[in-house]
Amino acid sequence: MNTALLRIEDLKKYFPIRVGLFGKVVGYIKAVDGVSFNVDAGEVVSLVGESGSGKTTIARCLLLLEKPTSGKILYDSEDITQLRGEKLRNYRRSVQAVFQNPFLSLDPRMNVFQIISEPVKNSMKLSREELLEYVSSLLELVGLDKSFLDKYPHELSGGQAQRVAIARAISLKPKLIILDEPTSALDVSVQAQILNLLADLKKELSLSYLLITHDLSIVKYISDRIIIIYLGKIMETGSSEEIFENPLHPYTRILFSSIPDPYRKFGERVILRGEPPSPVNPPPGCRFHTRCPYAIDICRKQEPPEIKSSLIHKVYCWLHTEKHSSETKT
Amino acid sequence: MTDQPILQVENLTIDYVVLDGIIKAVRNVSFTINEGEVVCLVGESGSGKTTVGLAISRALPENAIIREGRIIFKGRDLLNLEIRDKSTIEDKVMMIFQDPAATLNPLFKVGEIFSDVIKHHLKLSDQLKIREKALEFLKAVELPDPERIFNSYPHELSGGMLQRVIIAITLSVNPKLLIADEPTTMLDVTLQAQILDLLINLKKKFGLSILFITHNLSIAAEIGDRIIVMYGGEIVEEASSEELLKNPLHPYTKGLLECIPKTHIKYSKLKSIPGMIFDLRNPPLGCVFVDRCTEATDLCRKDKPRLIEFLKNHKVACHLYRGSTK
């Protein structure tokens, strides 16, 4: 568990805003602005944030769909943007992804066998029979039987289609799977099925997950570590228990209070006012200060430092420095 | 809240004619909504909850056929209206949808869409008055800077703002019943909380009754006075939201409650309901939930349980609760 499989160091991704005929750059959307974390082997790390927090951009950088503006992404201690040839193929094999809407990520003109076997054909030398057997075994792993082999995506329900997408993701025996909102498009009863499946597969195939979601309620059950991100910056990170039992950052607390809970009546929660500010001109100081109910003067001027509450529980918030310093004084 | 029903749905049965058969989307659904009440229709995909909503606002697609039933709104049957009555009723029942971006025409500014609605429904013609009215409603839905929003195109606004704009437009025609079809599903949790909060405030302010359609039982429990659980086109349980959560009777409702990930409990395994919904072209002879139910018996396969009032104000359609009717 101690070796970092994936290491992200001060990752930044700015998208230029271009105007006019010659595409003059007038500004940048700072989608990801200096994010560092790592994913250890066998670990499930969850990235939690609202739309526009940059969580999906991080995933896209990891999948080499975007080139980072600066910062490093190290996989097995090698910078992935520098990988070439066999090493690059190797990286692509070991990092796979499952996306939110399975009907958009499965080719409607291919049947389930073709969908799952396509990546396999390219990287493993298998005969037709072996391939069929391998694909059937993958289907079994995700809880579908052989009868699904010649079905097309439109014949599947949302849950079944997501299972096929998962089967395809594990077909190349990856080490890390990036799950981008894997259950947001599904019904609750099916969401629970898919989360259980992911937890089982992780154990069986010793996978690591980077789970990206805006829904804190599904995170606790599956993740080891949680990273709360807002407007391209990390607000708080810690083990799953620490974040759930002792959330420190005001934003984390508000996220918790936004989760609908059937056993709580309406009105018993803090509701966050307003919407996230634009990432083109993020607010100075702490990025959350414009919506933070506890913001003090310093929050508006200076970026908060990293406060360690335990070995891995870190929060970026001025409120906790205050408390911290007054506690140490007395 | 008075106990005067504003809407009565009786034996509603709706089919969709598709290429390879007939989808029996809604079968024998009956319920009422009282004045000032928030009733939540809860169900998964394919439960028929949206079809019921569309039928009440008379916006069913052309391939839908209402086989049976009556929808009585303020004493008048919505399914047998004279043409000249239609426009007056239309103002009183309004519906908002899941995807706010798909609801507004992208070619028009918010202000133009808004003015059109006000001009048509409130019979106003003075541009200044129309604008004033629109700004008033944009303010009522707690939008910052209504002037700017009035002059914006839909693509310039975020999902949460668009949903607020739509709620403002909807309210401007002074409806009595608002049908909200998954209005927060596309939004982030923080925005979802804002919109729910807004709907509850507006309900009080404008004296609305709300039929809230959702797949999320947690949301239903938070905002609903009463919850109706649907499965496969039929109502399986109905009770006040407190009662339903404290004492769920139907195995499906129990399963749904167990599926919700709760933040204060440590899990080793999340509960789920195995299996999936049946083919709606061939609904089962007996209970709709029989294939996924752990307590199903032979009787459940053969005989369809009727929706009975098993406890006071708590209806359930399940053979487990037979015999001991109150």
Write the layout of secondary structure elements.
The complex is a heterodimer of chains A (330) and B (326).
Chain A: E1 4-19, E2 24-40, E3 44-48, H1 55-62, E4 70-75, E5 78-79, H2 85-94, E6 95-98, H3 102-105, H4 112-123, H5 128-141, H6 158-170, E7 176-180, H7 188-205, E8 208-213, H8 216-222, E9 225-230, E10 233-239, H9 240-245, H10 250-258, H11 297-301, E11 306-308, E12 314-316, H12 318-329
Parallel strand pairs in A: 3-8, 3-9, 6-7, 7-8
Antiparallel strand pairs in A: 1-2, 1-4, 4-5, 9-10, 10-12, 11-12
Chain B: E1 5-18, E2 21-34, E3 38-42, H1 49-56, E4 64-73, E5 76-77, H2 83-90, E6 93-96, H3 100-103, H4 110-122, H5 127-140, H6 146-150, H7 159-172, E7 177-181, H8 189-206, E8 209-214, H9 217-223, E9 226-231, E10 234-240, H10 241-246, H11 251-259, H12 298-302, E11 308-311, E12 314-316
Parallel strand pairs in B: 3-8, 3-9, 6-7, 7-8
Antiparallel strand pairs in B: 1-2, 1-4, 4-5, 9-10, 10-12, 11-12
Helix pairs in contact in B: 4-5, 5-7, 7-8
Explain how this protein is built:
The complex is a heterodimer of chains A (330) and B (326). Chain A has a single domain (4-329), classed as P-loop containing nucleotide triphosphate hydrolases (Rossmann fold, 3-Layer(aba) Sandwich). Chain A has 12 helices and 12 strands. Mean pLDDT of chain A is 88; it is low at 326-330. Chain A has 330 residues and is of the alpha/beta class. In chain A, the strands form 2 sheets. Chain A has an 8-stranded mixed beta sheet, with helices on both faces. A 4-stranded antiparallel beta sheet of chain A has the order 2-1-4-5. In chain A, strand 11 and strand 12 (314-316) form a beta hairpin. Chain B is of the alpha/beta class. Chain B folds into 2 domains: 5-92 and 175-321, Rossmann fold (3-Layer(aba) Sandwich); 102-174, no CATH class. Chain B has an 8-stranded mixed beta sheet, sandwiched between helices. In chain B, strand 1 (5-18) and strand 2 form a beta hairpin. Chain B is globular. The two termini of chain B are 26 Å apart. The model of chain B has no long low-confidence stretch (mean pLDDT 88). The chains are: A alpha/beta (330), B alpha/beta (326).
